[in-house]
Amino acid sequence: MASSQKFSDLSIEEAASKVSHAVPMVDGIRLMLAAIALLAHLIDIPGTVRSSDAMWFLLAGYFVYAALPFAVRTQGRKFFRRKIALWCDVTWYAMLIAVTDPLTTVLFLFFPFAILVASFEHGCKEGRRITIGSVGLYLATGMLAGTTTPDFEWTWLFLRVVFLLSLGLMMAYWGGAEVVYKQRLALLREMNFISNPRFGVDQSIASIMEKCRGFFKANACVLLIHDTDSDIYCMRQTDATDMSRALHAQPLPADMAQPLLPFPADHLVLFGRTSGLTIFGRTRCRLYNERTQQWMTDANGHGERVADLLNTEAYIGAPVNWRRYDGRVYLTSSRDAYGPEDALFLMHTVEQAFRLIEHIDVLDRLASGAAQQERQRIVGDLHDSAIQPYIGLKMGLEALREQARPDNPLAPQIGKLIGMATHTLNEMRQYVTRLKDQHALSGSVLAADIRQLAIRFNEFYGICIEVHIDGELHLNDRLAAEVRQIVHEGLSNIRKHTTAQQGRIAVACASGVLQLEICNANDGSCTRPFMPRSIVTRVESLGGRVRIAHDAGCLTVVSISLPI
């Protein structure tokens, strides 16, 4: 447990926010302790008071200090950070004990309050710090009193010190364990959320790798997969600087991949060059057999060679078994060695994650099969109900142009209509071809498609659309198709419901969210507020949000956020 508790500092603010509902209770208990100390002095509970005036002054000060945070937080406002408050508590207790007898005062029992709150709110490390600080301050006040008091019972002082140290360390251990377990449950819940069939297998794998890397404070997460049917190796990698490499599996030659997979396929690997695995003569590399549930040493030296290939000081290697694939996930770190509980939790996390991935893959195959059948039906419907009428319309327009004289004023307009009909007919034929061939619309193709939509919109309707694409769009084909349809509907709304002659489309991907903005200016002739119901319905079905802003300058901005 001790090794895994270093991760309790990973999400300390998140963990604190989850227990924020307990803050008023903590402030109330602090105020109650101050009232108890004041009452104990009033009714003269046994215990030597060295200075009555100083005692009254300190008790009044501590009561005011305890009452202020309680009153401020009752009104919904923050007073100061809880970590600082805990250190202030310990300091107040030490000052109060300094003017009493350290061996008989009941104020000694106030120290566990600060230790308990620190441990269960901020984790094991902060609990240990408060414990050591409390023991140090109490020991200092006791030794100061011992130097000025004849016949001072040093045995009782050190007995209290040992008791406080033991109790504090136990509180820190169990409090830190609770924080770690809550964070692990939060990670597993979040993995269930991000493993959405709509995102696709690649996006789900990349998100899970990044979540694991962040949770374990790893420098990088490397996934090596071996296809046993085709004997092909591929690799995905994510680090703090670039998550996009995990979105696409990169082929890896067998002579480069096999040295990274020297361990038995069902064994967990734990390696560290730092002190975590080398103290007391323990080996640097250990293997865990899941069937026998026993740890063993790496007698072949594979762990050292893999660490050199990964260029790391410590790593965990969890096995991956997924349908016809096997391989390993590596989490690398250059700072701290991981512990056995960290490795076991990663193994269980990877096992659950790839069960979800397998579920997504099955759903994706079912959806692809159903989509293929639907595409074939749509192809037939389009050919009969749309393409054939357009061909007839084009032929009619061409016959009308042949009948019109060259000096007819409608001849240019008829020629323009023929051009639009020809362009639309070609688009429909290309669309039918894409449906037949099952071509996917990737993120890179989406950017070019949006620009082409804007150019065509300007040619047909005279509305100038400015397009901004920020960086690369890493989207799967289904989400890209949905985004294209949203953009098309947004442009149609500008033409139908506004008098705007200019507009703008901005697309960007950041922090796992696609941001899409469609805005237009009406040049002062603002129409009534419009709610694009079709866009809102489509976005909400994708798990996103739509916000519409209108300002006095008749600028309308439709902001769309989609999780990717």
UniProtKB/TrEMBL annotation:
It is found in: Cell membrane. GO terms for cellular component: plasma membrane. Residues 374-438 form the Signal transduction histidine kinase subgroup 3 dimerisation and phosphoacceptor domain. It holds the Pfam family HisKA_3. One of its GO terms (molecular function) is phosphorelay sensor kinase activity. It comes from the Bacteria. SUPFAM superfamilies: ATPase domain of HSP90 chaperone/DNA topoisomerase II/histidine kinase. Keywords: Cell membrane, Kinase, Membrane, Transferase, Transmembrane, Transmembrane helix, Two-component regulatory system. It is a multi-pass membrane protein. The chain crosses the membrane at residues 21-43, 55-72, 130-148, 154-174. PANTHER family: NITRATE/NITRITE SENSOR PROTEIN NARX-RELATED, SENSOR HISTIDINE KINASE NARS. This is Signal transduction histidine kinase subgroup 3 dimerisation and phosphoacceptor domain-containing protein. It comes from Noviherbaspirillum galbum.
